[in-house]
């Protein structure tokens, strides 16, 4: 008889493959219901993939509009392939949604937390949403249940916050229920593909049995391998380290880009050529680091350790300054042409934090616009994915660019829709291509990127370099 995914069975039982198969079968046949707390950009895709393996999934969200939408088989999250999947899963009864967390907790045997973990002004991690879900779960937690943290959390959250709270609130002892950290390794726009197995799934429990139960949970979810790590804290650290790696390396690229002002070289050319070496993986410079992951995760480490973390802190500061660097570049170039930023009319191309996603959290473009505004420029924003007016910024349709009187353009996010702009039909302007995404060398515009301070040496023009490249290739 299978009572839960977490088992206090004897070692002999654990080695028994038929017991393991029974548990897996109980899960994928729907006999062990799964509650997924948080039906947002990552939670809904995760709930759908769980349900698609045969699990019976109850999605929980505090937002009644989200719950109504999902319960009706509709989909409020824009992810490739998600809408038809949600419709089918709701129709066949494998996925449902509720605002009633305690009721879902009472019914479920597996509780998966995928709510946001943010950072307060000042850098302190804000775990209030996770704590609210843990409070719901504790009202229905039963012996044999497994609690899974998919949300990214500061290392030691499972050990020092989640588990002690569950013990205190339920009266159950550690060993009667499981807690495992199984961090989401996905990004907006690729959620279903990533959850189904782009990367190995990391699982780490507060005890060996929790890790074992998490291995069973994900065995049928991912086509990739499931990687057990030593404990829950290691699993938490893996996710936070991934984010810090990215933040620090982007900061390095951004710093190198600013030195190219002095050197008078193209940072992109130097980076691309340096990256010919397999040991070299310099990232792309840009106007800043956005999204709700990478800018937050360094704080999850810095706030939790006594040890000094100067590199992590400096990287954050370098990246946070990039919107200012971008506006400085524009102001400087306008001055070189006799213009002034405080009188300038500027279009910012791309509001979202990266190309191709309708996501504005921590978007560098918003900081660029705030700084332009602070320095007196009048700004319009162009974005094919979000309406600028939704964040109180005057918007401009892409196709209206030629008819609009502009002194400057700043490209902050390289949406593919911008490829269709016919720059020849736009009056000459200063263009800061902060992502180096446009090829406008031969147009009448004054184009600068963040990583070319002065134009390349006249003796080796772009044309010369391409000829030299051909010679080199022969
Ligand atoms: N978005 C990403 O690219 C990404 C990638 C990897 C990991 N993650 C992690 O996934 C987690 C969730 O991110 P997301 O992008 O899905 O967030 P989101 O903001 O899109 O959605 C969160 C959902 O949780 C709901 N919610 C808030 N409090 C709740 C509560 N107490 N009970 C139930 N529901 C509640 C909200 O109403 C919302 O619908 C975060 O911890 C993040 O670190 C996100
Ligand atoms: C590559 C990837 O899968 N990463 C994911 C990441 O996803 P993401 O959606 O946050 O996107 P990123 O690509 O990391 O970009 C963040 C910001 O940095 C800017 N940037 C990026 C690279 C560069 O070389 N130079 C830059 O300037 C970019 O424009 C944007 O503003 O976080 C998720 C949540 O934890 C992780 O699952 C996962 O690691």
Automatic annotation (TrEMBL):
Q: What is its EC number?
A: 1.1.1.336
Please verify whether the record's keywords include Cell wall biogenesis/degradation: no
Reaction catalysed by this enzyme: UDP-N-acetyl-alpha-D-mannosamine + 2 NAD(+) + H2O = UDP-N-acetyl-alpha-D-mannosaminouronate + 2 NADH + 3 H(+)
Domain UDP-glucose/GDP-mannose dehydrogenase C-terminal: where? Answer: 347-440
One annotated GO molecular function is: NAD binding
**Composition skew (Basic and acidic residues), residue ranges:** 11-24
- Annotated segments matching region Disordered: 1-24
Does Protein biosynthesis appear among the keywords?
Answer: no
| Alphabetic keyword roster | NAD, Oxidoreductase
Tell me the leader sequence span: none
Entry-linked InterPro entries: 6-PGluconate_DH-like_C_sf (IPR008927), NAD(P)-bd_dom_sf (IPR036291), UDP-Glc/GDP-Man (IPR017476), UDP-Glc/GDP-Man_DH_C (IPR014027), UDP-Glc/GDP-Man_DH_C_sf (IPR036220), UDP-Glc/GDP-Man_DH_dimer (IPR014026), UDP-Glc/GDP-Man_DH_N (IPR001732), UDP_ManNAc/GlcNAc_DH (IPR028359)
A biological process from GO: polysaccharide biosynthetic process
Q: Which NCBIfam families match?
A: NDP-sugDHase
What family is reported? Belongs to the UDP-glucose/GDP-mannose dehydrogenase family.
Q: What is this protein called?
A: UDP-N-acetyl-D-mannosamine dehydrogenase
**Organism whose genome encodes this protein:** Halovivax ruber (strain DSM 18193 / JCM 13892 / XH-70)
